[in-house]
Design a protein that fits this description.
Layout: E1 2-7, H1 14-45, H2 48-76, H3 88-116, H4 125-151, H5 175-204, H6 209-236, H7 243-254, E2 259-270, E3 273-282, H8 288-295, E4 301-310
Parallel strand pairs: 3-4
Antiparallel strand pairs: 1-4, 2-3
Helix pairs in contact: 1-2, 1-4, 2-3, 2-5, 3-5, 3-6, 4-5, 5-6
C-alpha cells in the first residue's frame, strides 16, 4: 500500500484579493457619504423611500466593513501554519455574515414599508428625486468597481462559462466579494424603486407607491440573499463537490480499466481551490504522483492525499455509473 499527500496550498490569489480589498474600501467610503446624504435628505424632505434607502445603505456600510476586514485577516494570516488549509474560507465566512445581515435588512424593509403604507407623509419630491438619482449613480459606480473581481459568473480565468459544459470552478466564486457585489446591487435596486415611487407620487399622486416599492425591494433582496447563504454555507460546512466533478475525476483515473477509485472525498477550501482524499485500487499500482497528473486539468486541487493499494484478487471491479 502506498500513501502520500501533497499540500502546496498558498494564498495564490493574493494579488487579486489585494485589488478586491482596495475596491471594497473605495465602495465603503463612497457608500458611507451617500448614506449620510440620503438619511439627511429623507428627514429634511420627508421621503420615506429615501430615508429607507439611506438606512439600507447604512446597514450595507457595516456589512461591507466585514468584507474588508475579512480580506485583511486573510492576507495577514495567509502563511500562518496554524491554518491547515490556509485562510481561503475567511472570505466565505465574511460572505455568509454579509448574507445574514442582508436578510435582516430585507425583512426590516418589508415590515417598515408595510407600516408606512397606512401612514404616508408629505414629501418634497424634486429634492428627494435628485438625491435618489445621485444614489443610483453611486451604486452603479460601486457595482462596476466590484464586478470584475467576483460579481459575475465568469470562469476564474476570465472566460465566460459555456452552457452544457462541465466547469468545476463554477461554484468557486469569491463569496466575500460576491456579497459586496450583491450589497451594492441591492442598494441600486432600492434606489431605482425609490425613484419609481417618488416619480409616481409626484406625477400621479400615488404616495402609497413609496411603501409598496419598499415591500417589493425587500422580497427581491431576500431571494438574492438566499442563494448567497446557500452557496457560502456549503463551502463552510465542507459540502461534497457536485456529481459532475466527481464523475470527471473518476473518469480521468479509471479510463484505462486498470485503476479504480475506491473512495473519494473532495471539497472546497477556498474560492476556486479544492482539497481531495483519493483511495485508488489498481492491478498495477503507480506512485501517487501518477494519479495526481491524471487529475490535472480536471479540477484545481491544491491539497491532495492519495492512497494506492493492490486490487483484491489482482483485478479491478468495474462499477457501472449513470
Amino acid at each position: 500500500m502506498k500513501a502520500d499527500r501533497q499540500c502546496y496550498y498558498r494564498f495564490d490569489a493574493e494579488t487579486l484579493h489585494a485589488s478586491a480589498e482596495r475596491s471594497t474600501i473605495r465602495v465603503i467610503a463612497l457608500t458611507a457619504v451617500m448614506m449620510l446624504a440620503e438619511i439627511v435628505g429623507g428627514i429634511v424632505f420627508g421621503s420615506m423611500a429615501l430615508l429607507a434607502d439611506g438606512w439600507h445603505m447604512a446597514t450595507h456600510v457595516a456589512a461591507l466593513g466585514i468584507t474588508a476586514l475579512a480580506y485583511r485577516y486573510a492576507r495577514i494570516h495567509a502563511d500562518n501554519p496554524a491554518y491547515t488549509f490556509g485562510t481561503g474560507k475567511i472570505g466565505v465566512l465574511g460572505g455568509f455574515a454579509s448574507g445574514v445581515a442582508l436578510m435582516v435588512v430585507a425583512a426590516f424593509m418589508a415590515v417598515e414599508s408595510a407600516a408606512r403604507l397606512f401612514k404616508p407623509g408629505r414629501i418634497e419630491f424634486n429634492e428627494a428625486i435628485a438625491i435618489a438619482l445621485l444614489g443610483l449613480l453611486v451604486n452603479l459606480l460601486s457595482a462596476w468597481w466590484l464586478h470584475d473581481h467576483g460579481g459575475s459568473d465568469s470562469h476564474p480565468d476570465g472566460a465566460p462559462q459555456q452552457r452544457g459544459t462541465h466547469d468545476p470552478h463554477r461554484h468557486g466564486h469569491d463569496h466575500n466579494l460576491r456579497a459586496a457585489y450583491l450589497h451594492v446591487l441591492a442598494d441600486a435596486l432600492t434606489s431605482v424603486l425609490a425613484l419609481v415611487a417618488l416619480g409616481c407620487g409626484k406625477l400621479l399622486g400615488w404616495i402609497w407607491m413609496d411603501s409598496l416599492m419598499g415591500i417589493v425591494g425587500g422580497l427581491v433582496i431576500a431571494r438574492w440573499c438566499h442563494g448567497l447563504l446557500r452557496d457560502s454555507a456549503g463551502v463552510l460546512l465542507d459540502r461534497r463537490a457536485d456529481e459532475a466533478t466527481e464523475r470527471a475525476m473518476r473518469d480521468a483515473v479509471e479510463r484505462d480499466g486498470t485503476h479504480r477509485i475506491a473512495d473519494l472525498h473532495i471539497w472546497h477550501i477556498a474560492p476556486n481551490q479544492m482539497a481531495a482524499i483519493v483511495e485508488v485500487e489498481s492491478t498495477s499500482p503507480q506512485p501517487p504522483d501518477y494519479y495526481r497528473r491524471l487529475l490535472e486539468g480536471v479540477v484545481r486541487l491544491v491539497h491532495v492525499t492519495v492512497q494506492v493499494s493492490q486490487a483484491p484478487g489482482g483485478r479491478v471491479v468495474q462499477v457501472s455509473r449513470e
